[in-house]
Amino acid sequence: MKIRILGPLEAESDGVQAVPTAAKTRQILALLALHPGRLVPVATLWEEVWGPVPPRSAHTTFQTYILRLRRVLATALGGPDATATARRVLATGHGGYLLRVAEEDVDAYAFQRAARAGHEAFADGDSELASRLLRQALALWRGPALVDVRAGSALRIHAAALEESRLLATERRVDAELRLGRHTELLSELVGLTERHPAHERFHAQAMVAFYRSGRQSAALDLYRRLRRRLIEDLGLEPAPQLQRLHQAMLAVDPRLDTVAQGGPPTPTFDLYAA
After folding, report:
1. pTM of the model
2. What is the mean pLDDT of residues 167-187?
């Protein structure tokens, strides 16, 4: 069974969909899928569905949700023993439930594995491999994680963590491609990233470098001025020291800014002037 949570919730077996329509049953499937092959305590599942104070009928109602979810799984799994197979896939454990699927069959784990390999390749100085692996990882996303699932406390935490990992993978992929001299090709994407994340200083640093290396120094400096004004007005903060030093380097036309690093330490763009 394949389960996708990086976007709308999807689950299928041999092309047959296994996603329940009821909101709470979808929550249960999503939370179990985030712990493939591992027991999720009943208390954790109840809190996800009902919050810290479950109803008095929680035990009976929850059993109904599990029964409905197993029926959906049985329909997708098919075969003469579909009901028994569904009980093995969605198994009852000591004090909880577990979904017997492999980590590689859940897209969030496939993303994390590919992203981790991409980060390692960047750290090793292999920008080409890092770019390829991180692009593969990011291609698994079809929208915000669990975008069509009503999220309780646990799912909100997982979704936020996944989104943070997505941003970091995007940032590192851009770092790798800037090192490969692809600054002009990255401009459109970086403009979009700075608009969607108006206070994200690392994306702004990357966009500034891409503009500068594309012969658009004034656009790079204007991007810095707009970010600084926003940070001061909204948060009462100056940009990070790294970004201030990057700005000064552009004003001084520092020749290091024109160098597309093919060797040396794989420094992230934001940290070019960290010291």
Report:
1. 0.90
2. 95
